[in-house]
Amino acid sequence: MKGFVGVINLDHELDQLKELTYFRCGAAVPFAGRYRLIDFALSNMMYAGAQDISLFVRRKYRSLMDHLGEGRPWDLDRKRGGLFILPPDWHDPTDTSTGDLQHIHNNMDFFHRSTGDIIIHTGTQHVNKIDYKDVYAYHLEKGADVTVIYKKADELMPEHAACRRVEVDESGFVTDIHQELDHPNIYLEAFIMSKDLYLEQVNYCIAHGKSYFFRDAIQNNPNHLKIAGYEYKGYNAVINSVESYYKNSMDLLCPDNYHQLFRENPVQTKIKYEAPAKYLESAQVHNSLVANGCVIGGEVDNSILFRGVKVEKGAKVVNSIILQKCTIESGAVLENVILDKDVQITHDRTLIGDVKHPYVTAKSTSL
């Protein structure tokens, strides 16, 4: 099998998670107790065997760079190849490209030097466990130029409204890509194609004044590419708003959902060596995810606590997501709340949000 080249494109992912994206891009947002959203895309590529992965970033990526480092958790800290974080900052006065095509045009060296022949192109707003080896086998079986990945939604949710939809005929080929809200086939912002064809389409789009690769080369399909549709049937969560982040995070407290996402092929992330969580005699914890380094003296119910969270005796946390190193002092009550990292909730303070619209605080605040 030919080798894979990974492209994780963050250019179109806006900072839609309000306070959670004040100081970081969406890909760096913590998820599921110990991960970041980008971990899932990187892990899927790692299990496919991709040895060269580029990350197209434009803004707020300091936190992301700190998390990724040299790419060691994903076996990308290599002397040749590995992980490349690529902003479009060459300032070439002859460059006429715009949009995400600017990323590709300004970083052509990455593609020319990469050893793989097949592009895996994805974003980070869809959390899933796609098997790209299986997708590639389907791609070859269909003899397709491009294979896009979609999932048929059992129930359309508000977060699906911003997603493209894929129409597929009985032979498995795509007949249309659109945004009709009542169509259940959700495009997962992921496709594969040969590197040569990918670069050929990039040059065509730039020469014709286009800006966005997927829209202008695949969705509009001016060159009549043969596009197959691969139906992914596993777990998928769309994270494109605070509400979808909260809902899909809380859904992981259901064991079936958690096992679908984490049971096979463990998701890799930056390793932080901390002591196990400590439960004091006064602690009461029910149906919650509690990460390493936490100290629990109060009540935690149906919640997700990231590393180093402290819940003092007499405090109560219900239906909430508490990010790293937050402190909830005695007597405080939190319900339907998201606290970003390093937040301190003072003695006897009460914060209650709505289950559909959680209360969110920005990082490093004291309330």
TrEMBL record:
The keyword Transferase applies. It holds the Pfam family Hexapep_GlmU. Residues 16-152 form the Nucleotidyl transferase domain. One of its GO terms (biological process) is glycogen biosynthetic process. The keyword Aminoacyl-tRNA synthetase does not apply. Keywords: Glycogen biosynthesis, Nucleotidyltransferase, Transferase. InterPro entries: ADP-Glc_PPase (IPR011831), GlgDAde_trans (IPR011832), GlmU/GlgC-like_hexapep (IPR056818), NTP_transferase_dom (IPR005835), Nucleotide-diphossugar_trans (IPR029044), Trimer_LpxA-like_sf (IPR011004). GO terms for molecular function: glucose-1-phosphate adenylyltransferase activity. Residues 282-353 form the Glucose-1-phosphate adenylyltransferase/Bifunctional protein GlmU-like C-terminal hexapeptide domain. Belongs to the bacterial/plant glucose-1-phosphate adenylyltransferase family. This is Glucose-1-phosphate adenylyltransferase subunit GlgD.
